[in-house]
Amino acid sequence: MLSAKSNRSRLVVVSNRLPGMKAVGGEERLRPIGGLATAVEAALSQRESGGVWIGWSGKITSGNDRSGIKEIAAKPIRLLGLDLTENDVAAYYNGFCNKALWPILHGFPGLATLSRSQLDVYRSVNRFFASEIMSQLNEGDLVWIHDYHLFYLGHELRKLGWKGKIGFFLHVPFPSMESLEILPDYRELLSLMSAFDLVGFQTKIYRDNYARACELSLGSQLKGNILVGGESKQIADVFPVGIDVDKFLPSDGDRASGKGRITLGTPFQNLDIVLGVDRLDYTKGLPERTIAFETLLKTHPKIKRAVTMIQVCSPSRTKVSEYVEQKKRMDSLVGRINGELSEHDWEPIRYLYRTYSQEELIDFYRYSKVGLVTPLRDGMNLVAKEFVAAQYPDDPGVLTLSKFAGAAEQMTEAILVNPYIPEDTADGIALALEMPKGERIERHQALLKKVQDYSVQRWTNEFVSALISG
Ligand code: F6P
Q1: CA 345, 348, 350 angle in degrees (round to 5)?
Q2: Is the model's pLDDT at 20 over the cut of 80?
């Protein structure tokens, strides 16, 4: 548990993305989108000594100059934002982050576009973040940097003289050496990462990939959870990110009141719902999943008219060509399958290209018999955990989960499938749909216990404690 001392140091969180804000009943609330923002919001909210969250404001300046740090919100968490130029957004965010690092880290080198000039802008944005953050830091602060957009930030802060603790958490996978070495200057990247006192990963496999890369490139060695030799001593450990479980658990009154925000009307009556909730990203395996669902309908004629799939896809990185392609692919795939298999009174797939609030998603989770979470590769995947936490324990839905989601390392009582093989996923869905209630309850209890044990509160506490004591 977090010691009293550790909870007194101010936490300075830095990430590329900040949460949006929304007004609820005259009060400003955070609107986090994506796993990182959701987890960091929960982490900061529980700190007695408060904290500050610094990131890109999401704004683009009109000229060639970046604009310095500004307060975006004072409550419930202090948010400070930086504005980037159009060139930064093109070369750093849409470019090096999402066209080079994202595919390489997720093991899709064939989709990567590599460019030294984009790497230069990436470095320069990291340097800019460092100079702005330095003006905000006080002695004793704990700096906690998040994700692949800011690999060089620790090093840049050290260059400017910051001597305090710096932790780094990678929300996405860390790949094996064969994938990593495709990146330009990957050795330098590993060497500059030694500026972090602590590096955290979602799973043991990702931590071990990092340690092996440091061993091969820098000559370091992992002893326990410490990387020694090489250029410095660093803790490299596993901190599986979790959710704020209480927000998802059903209360006694929930089912009785029947008051959801989303009401599924007549078309869904008497149908078992298979649910997917994802950002529209090629790593999420959406076309593969859709084809698997089609396979299920074709190979299990009895199931066909008794089931429907709801696929929520939130728009993401819409300026990056691979995402535009993925959207086109989904549009045409769903159109074709619905055209070929629909009946006048039944449709196989309801495809919702939009973002829903957490409360609305909870309704979707509870209506569904199967939670289908089948990324081709994923750092963790919090939808898997949210789905489990939201179920009614006396009649829970079943989680069908990709072996290649970080969550699979913990959630072994889910039905685990290989998302690249449509028949595998189709069989996994069929198994979930046909599972007797007793087994559903048993699996759900085991999964819920793990989700509760590894909550987001535990994630923060363990990371911050390790940072302080390391
Ligand atoms: O997985 C990394 C991550 O930062 C997630 O936390 C989040 O879901 C997603 O990427 C958001 O991406 P972006 O900030 O590019 O919209």
Answers
A1: 100
A2: no
Please check whether the two domains, 11-242+456-469 and 245-453, share a CATH topology.
yes
**Annotated catalytic residue: which of 155, 378, 427, 444?**
378
The residue whose CA has the least distance to atom 4 of ligand 1 is 36
Q: Whose Cα sits closest to atom 9 in ligand 1?
A: 34
To the query of whether residue 394 is one of the catalytic residues in this protein, the response is: no
Q: Which of 145, 316, 380 most suits a substitution to test ligand 1, by most atoms within 8 Å of the C-beta? A: 316
Mutate to test the pocket of ligand 1, among 14, 36, 94 (most ligand atoms within 8 A of CB): 36
Neighbouring CB atoms inside 10 A of 218's CB total: 18
What is the C-alpha separation between 253 and 255, in angstroms, rounded? Answer: 6
Question: For the chain, which residues make up each domain, given as ranges?
Answer: 11-242+456-469, 245-453
- The answer regarding whether domain 245-453 maps to CATH 3.20.20.80 reads no
Q: Ligand 1 atom 7: the closest Cα is on which residue?
A: 34
Give catalytic status of residue 344 as yes or no: no
Which of the residues 149, 171, 244, 444 is marked catalytic? 171
How far is ligand 1, taken at its centre, from the CA of residue 35, in Å?
7
Q: Looking at residues 398-406, what average pLDDT do you find? A: 98
Q: What distance in angstroms lies between residue 301's CA and the mean position of ligand 1's atoms?
A: 38
* pTM score: 0.94
Helical ranges in 300-421 per DSSP H: 301-304, 321-341, 358-367, 382-390
Residue 186 pLDDT more than 80?
yes
Question: For 11-242+456-469, which CATH superfamily applies?
Answer: Glycogen Phosphorylase B; (3.40.50.2000)
Predicted local confidence at residue 226, as pLDDT = 96
C-alpha torsion sign, points 64, 65, 70, 76? positive
35 closest CA partner among 292, 281, 311, 397: 281
374-396 pLDDT tens trace: 999 999 999 999 999 999 999 99
